[in-house]
């Protein structure tokens, strides 16, 4: 099977989506298509969508609207919507957008080449959104590509069975399904053989890895096995769920040299009342205890989180608890969002929805507190020497960038002829708001 022409992928959303887009690129290239630089130049356009918040969903409609003219000019153009919006809206999308050819659900990435060919031959308009038990794309090998040449994502599980009250993911990605550890180990070995030095293991809830297949300690076992692979220098993972995070994982991070000292552990709210309404399965004090254990086992471990403001019924007092949580935990960095009601979730029609104006004010307060905390962390690193994995060149001559083990971005000058993939000792000269500045020593 081979086609000619160019393809273009537009991606919205999380790392999982970025990685799905990498897989889509590989499939398109295997089909004989070349990457296009823009929509105008392309014969197949794939919009890989995110439905986590309303804003992301709206961006997709705006992109699709713009493609109407492109399709008018070139009726042979194939337009595909993939990802979470595709899964959620199903053939509603093809009804709304007459120029759309294919709605591709989250379990069907690997069907894309066949479907594109079918559409090219027959001009049918198709929707493929059923959920399946053993998702073929879960087994697709990471292409080892992407913007960071020595780093690769590796999917270890797909879906989520948690049904947090605000979240659309269990509906758009289906139940938790773990990939076999043999397959993951083989893939990572191949990636390292081809020069990859850092991997990020992806799953909605990596702490639950293997539980759907009845395996306990699946995730820590996997980290131990990955640590044996020659050439692999750094192992990262995201996302963890606080309920499933335990001291055995903290021990593994402390004991395994290649596992980086960074945990992304979404707290979502500092109020126990709101956490209960969100169906998160822990209290703030459970969370804080886990952080204390992590910090005792892995001193200096970087901790990042996600926070939602304006969940239905969030009172001033609840919100104060969120601000207090930021001060108590002192996260290295946070990702914070205004609650966005998502169709089909438990929180969509909850009473006491918080007005947007208040959500905006609360978000600004969260940013103000966190920005100061992050800046202090960055300033505390000034003067110290850290290991940076050199990932690429900056805009100026002799300027490079990379990340610390704790996932902080460092821009640095390089007088030692280091190259991409080297672990470089860098003296931090200045801690800025979002990054660090340094010099190779
Ligand atoms: N509204 C706002 N933020 C949300 N998130 C998930 N669903 C919603 C929603 N409906 C956030 C959570 C999650 C992150 C990926 O996105 O904080 O951890
Ligand atoms: Fe969504 Fe909760 Fe699953 Fe995370 S754990 S993907 S927030 S349902």
List the helices and strands and how they pair.
Layout: E1 6-11, H1 15-30, E2 34-35, E3 44-49, H2 54-73, E4 78-83, H3 84-89, H4 92-96, E5 102-104, H5 112-122, E6 126-128, E7 151-155, E8 157-158, H6 169-173, E9 177-178, H7 181-193, E10 198-202, H8 218-226, E11 234-238, H9 247-255, E12 262-264, H10 272-278, H11 284-297, E13 302-309, H12 316-329, E14 333-338, H13 356-381, E15 385-393, E16 399-404, E17 409-413, E18 423-431, E19 436-440
Parallel strand pairs: 1-2, 1-3, 3-4, 4-5, 5-6, 7-10, 10-11, 12-13, 13-14, 17-19
Antiparallel strand pairs: 8-9, 15-16, 15-18, 16-17, 18-19
Brief synopsis:
Helix content is 35%, strand content 22%. It has helices at residues 15-30, 54-73, 84-89, 92-96, 112-122, 169-173, 181-193, 218-226, 247-255, 272-278, 284-297, 316-329, 356-381, and strands at 6-11, 34-35, 44-49, 78-83, 102-104, 126-128, 151-155, 157-158, 177-178, 198-202, 234-238, 262-264, 302-309, 333-338, 385-393, 399-404, 409-413, 423-431, 436-440.
């Amino acid at each position: 099977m081979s086609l000619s022409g160019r393809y273009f992928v537009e991606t919205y959303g999380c790392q999982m989506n970025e990685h799905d887009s990498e897989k889509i690129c590989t499939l398109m290239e295997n089909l004989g298509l070349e990457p296009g630089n823009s929509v105008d130049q392309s014969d197949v356009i794939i919009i890989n969508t995110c439905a986590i918040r309303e804003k992301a969903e709206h961006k997709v409609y705006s992109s699709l609207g713009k493609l109407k003219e492109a399709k008018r000019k070139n009726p042979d153009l194939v337009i595909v919507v993939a990802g979470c919006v595709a899964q959620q809206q199903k053939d509603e999308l093809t009804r709304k957008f007459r120029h759309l050819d294919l709605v591709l659900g989250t379990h069907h990435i690997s069907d894309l080449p066949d479907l594109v060919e079918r559409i090219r031959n027959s001009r049918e308009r198709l929707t493929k959104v059923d959920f399946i038990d053993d998702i073929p794309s879960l087994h697709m090998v990471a292409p080892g590509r992407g913007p960071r040449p020595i780093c690769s994502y590796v999917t270890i599980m797909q879906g989520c069975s948690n049904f947090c009250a605000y979240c659309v993911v269990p509906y758009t990605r289906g139940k938790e399904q773990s990939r076999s550890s043999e397959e993951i180990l083989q893939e990572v070995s191949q990636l390292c053989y081809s020069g990859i030095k850092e991997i990020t293991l992806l799953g909605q809830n990596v702490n639950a890895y293997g539980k759907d297949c009845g395996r306990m300690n699946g995730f820590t076992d996997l980290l131990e096995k990955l640590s044996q692979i020659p050439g692999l220098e750094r192992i990262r993972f995201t996302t963890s769920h606080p309920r499933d995070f335990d001291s055995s994982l903290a021990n593994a991070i402390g004991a395994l040299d290649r596992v980086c000292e960074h945990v992304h552990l979404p707290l979502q709210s500092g109020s126990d009342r709101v956490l209960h309404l969100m169906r998160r399965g822990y209290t703030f004090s459970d969370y804080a205890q886990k952080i204390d254990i992590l910090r005792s086992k892995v001193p200096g471990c970087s901790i990042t989180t996600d926070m939602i403001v304006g969940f239905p019924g969030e009172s001033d007092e609840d919100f104060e608890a969120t601000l207090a949580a930021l001060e108590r935990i002192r996260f290295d960095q946070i990702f914070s969002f205004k609650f966005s009601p998502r169709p089909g979730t438990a929180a969509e029609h909850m009473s006491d929805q918080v007005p947007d104006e208040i959500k905006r004010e609360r978000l600004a307060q969260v940013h103000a507190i966190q920005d100061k905390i992050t800046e202090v962390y960055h300033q505390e690193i000034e003067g110290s020497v850290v290991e940076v994995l050199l990932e690429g060149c900056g805009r100026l001559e002799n300027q490079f960038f990379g990340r610390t083990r704790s996932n902080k971005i460092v821009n640095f000058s390089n007088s030692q002829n280091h190259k991409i993939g080297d672990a470089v000792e860098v003296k931090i000269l200045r801690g800025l708001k979002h990054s660090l500045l340094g010099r190779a020593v």
